[in-house]
Amino acid sequence: MAIHRPDSADVSRKLLADFLRELEVRPRCMILAQWVLDLWPGGAAVIYLIEDQESPQWTAKAVAGEIQAEDEAVPFEAGTLGLLAERRKPLLFAGRELAREQYAHLHVRKTLVSLAYVPIMVEDVLIGALEAASFDRPISQDDLVVLEDIGGYAGPGLSGALEYERERSTQLQSISRLTQLYDLEKVFNSILEMDDLLPIVASKFREVFEAQAVNLWLVKDQNELLLMNQEGVDPTVEVGALQKSGEGIAAGVSDSGEPSLISDPEDGALQKRNHGIEEGGIFSLMAAPLVAQEAQVGVVEVINRLDGRPFDDDDLFLLAAVCETAAGALHNASLVQAERKVEILETLVTVSKEITSTLNLDSVLQTVVNGTKAVVPYDRAAIALEQRGKLQVRAVSDLQEIRPGDADVARLRDLLEWAAVADDEIHITQHGDSIDTEREETQAKFAEYFNSSGMHAFYAIPLIDDQGRVGMLSFESADPDFLTEAHLEMIRVLAAQVTVAVRNAELYREVPFIGVLEPILQKKRKFLALEKRRRRMLVGVALAVVVFLAVFPLPLRVQGNATVAPQSAALVQPDVEGVVRSVYVKEGDAVKAGTVLADLQDWDYRSALAAAEAKHSAAQAEMNRALAANDGSEAGVQRVQAEYWAAEVQRARQRLEATHLRSPIEGIVATPYLETFVGRHLDKGDTLAQVINTSAALVDVSIDQEEVVLLKAGETASIKLESFPTRTFKGKVAIVSPASQPQADSRVFFARVNVFNPQGVIRAGMQGQGKVWAGWRPAGYVLLRRPAMWIWGKLWSWFGW
């Protein structure tokens, strides 16, 4: 290879002229490599630069000629380039002297004759290397001097290009960060809902810093922080965690008001934070306060860079800048949240005034279900009240009147009755096909309810005071997230006020004199305004009514719900063992007492009877012969034998008779598939069939405890069953139960009535009404007894004499 030796001035002038046309590193490196190739036709050249002096490595920026670099990055101390880094002066190697491993960073297809290296220096700082390869003739020392001159000229140009790219990269990074800050400000300030803003703030922080996790702490009170949101994975803390002043890193930043950077994994604060964590611990952390209008909103923690490097001061500076934008957005969201709470409180005060200003129960209920719609975005609200142990839906939003038999109201009532069992708040939502409850039964119940009603959220709260449950208040919506924490707080306060208002309205309605005295006074004034003759006539009619009530007798009957008690039954069981030969009845057949239901195989019993009879006859004959022979002793022995075998004959006949299985009572056969017993072996005491006694029925009539003193055994009773609306069954009271039993919200006694049932039409479990005769009483006693007892009880409860 012949080298052209240009004048040094020419080299400097031409090389610098070419360099000045380009500003970036790679184009200048290509110019330099091509310049060497022009001087060495048929050779090859590679230009390497060191971009990071703190962590140096060779980076191939340009290749010219028949050669390739295996990797763009080459270790700083590897092979021949490592010798150049160590000696920092031109090197010349003969191809035959080099092992392939020494220039493994090159891909060479021709035979390498010589390999030359020239360091590119700027003020004694190694910034790169020029590598020249020869394939046709050796490179001489004179050639190496030319290459050294070229490297000296190229050094400042390449250094300037590196500096230019660094400045441009810094500028681009600054522009990128400014753009990020602008975008973040737009995103943050476009959201005013705190629940929506918190996850977005955390996710944007994590995206900007390319971090493993971001924790967003908000100020709960003056000395405490609450972890409201976590984006990513931080095994050292969970959402909902609290940090009091001085307890942790976030609390320390909150106390000082200054950002904090921890880049040493051995730092004591990180060691404490990572205690007990085996994998995924924190090795680098930044934290900065969120301050808006000189008020601290919270603290942001950024955990671990994803590239494994620790955070630096530039990252901390950027974090502080992003925190300013986020703090303003969080402050605005908190103002909106506070304003909404004020609006909710104003609505709550308005509703409270309305429901406490009246004792009209219907007005109270309508105000509750319709008055809160301005601040709670529900689609339907309803209130159900406890009445006689059951819930009744009394008011539904946007409905002036509840129609009997309404399917939607019926479904809602069933759901409220189910919710009332827990005596606690019920909040079920549906997102897509997922219903947020663990119990499969509850999921199935609400899947069906939401499908039929079109709703996707159901919230119910019990109305309870110290006297017990008043009812249930519910809210529904097609939006599963229609209730916020502020709404829930309002509803809980509202529920307490509604409970008091409903209880007061119910008590007012139960006070007798409140609704009676005023109409009485009005009627008195009207009576006194009548003429005298008219007043006398009205007085006479009143006296006649009093006499009628006091003297005229009327039958007194005590009425109650009637239920047919289980009927008596008898079991058909053999007294002997055997195989069933025949069955003569089936399930549902009516039988008389003594009717043969089935027969057992009786061959053995007939044989035993015949043998006993034969032995009895023989003993009788022997006794007669002894008597005829006047042998008293022998006659006595044979008489004993005859008596013994006579008893055996009787027992054999009884066992033979026992093979006929008879009904012990009159009734109905209740055993199914009785015909399948043919051929089955029965032991003594086994059950063949069950016969239910239908000739008489026992009916339980429930009597209120106020009426039980009027009853006694033997009184006549009339029973009207729902299954036979046109028939009346007569009976006698057998006994009045001595102890009461709970029924719904009261206690009752039972009058046991025996009813004749020859046709067997009365069956266990039938229901109806029963009336028990209690004798003749004055009309006033019959008609006014219950109202008088109620009034007496109220007066006693008020005055307690």
What are its keywords?
Beta-Lactamase, six-stranded antiparallel sheet, 17 helices, 801 residues, alpha+beta
Structure, described:
- The protein is of the alpha+beta class and 801 residues long.
- 42% of the residues lie in helices and 28% in strands.
- It has six domains: 161 residues, Beta-Lactamase; 137 residues, GAF domain (Beta-Lactamase); 153 residues, GAF domain (Beta-Lactamase, 2-Layer Sandwich); 63 residues, OB fold (Dihydrolipoamide Acetyltransferase, E2P), CATH 2.40.50.100; 54 residues; 106 residues, Beta Barrel (Elongation Factor Tu (Ef-tu), domain 3).
- The protein has 17 helices and 35 strands.
- The strands form seven sheets. The protein has a six-stranded antiparallel β-sheet. Strands 11-10-9-14-13-12 form a six-stranded antiparallel β-sheet, with helices on both faces.
- Strand 19 and strand 20 form a beta hairpin.
- The longest helix is centred in the first third of the chain and has 49 residues.
- The radius of gyration is 54 Å and the shape is elongated.
Write the layout of secondary structure elements.
Layout: H1 8-21, H2 25-39, E1 44-49, E2 57-65, E3 68-69, E4 73-75, H3 79-87, E5 91-94, E6 106-107, E7 114-122, E8 125-134, H4 141-189, H5 194-209, E9 211-221, E10 224-232, E11 242-244, H6 249-256, E12 260-262, H7 268-273, E13 285-292, E14 295-305, H8 313-356, H9 361-371, E15 380-387, E16 390-396, H10 407-420, E17 426-431, E18 434-435, H11 440-453, E19 457-465, E20 468-477, H12 485-510, H13 512-528, H14 532-551, E21 553-564, E22 569-572, E23 578-583, E24 590-591, E25 596-600, H15 603-628, H16 632-657, E26 660-662, E27 667-669, E28 681-682, E29 689-692, E30 696-704, E31 716-721, E32 729-736, E33 741-743, E34 746-756, E35 767-778, H17 779-799
Antiparallel strand pairs: 1-2, 1-8, 2-4, 3-6, 5-7, 7-8, 9-10, 9-14, 10-11, 12-13, 13-14, 15-16, 15-20, 17-18, 17-19, 19-20, 21-30, 21-35, 22-29, 23-25, 23-28, 24-27, 25-26, 27-29, 30-34, 31-32, 31-35, 32-34, 33-34
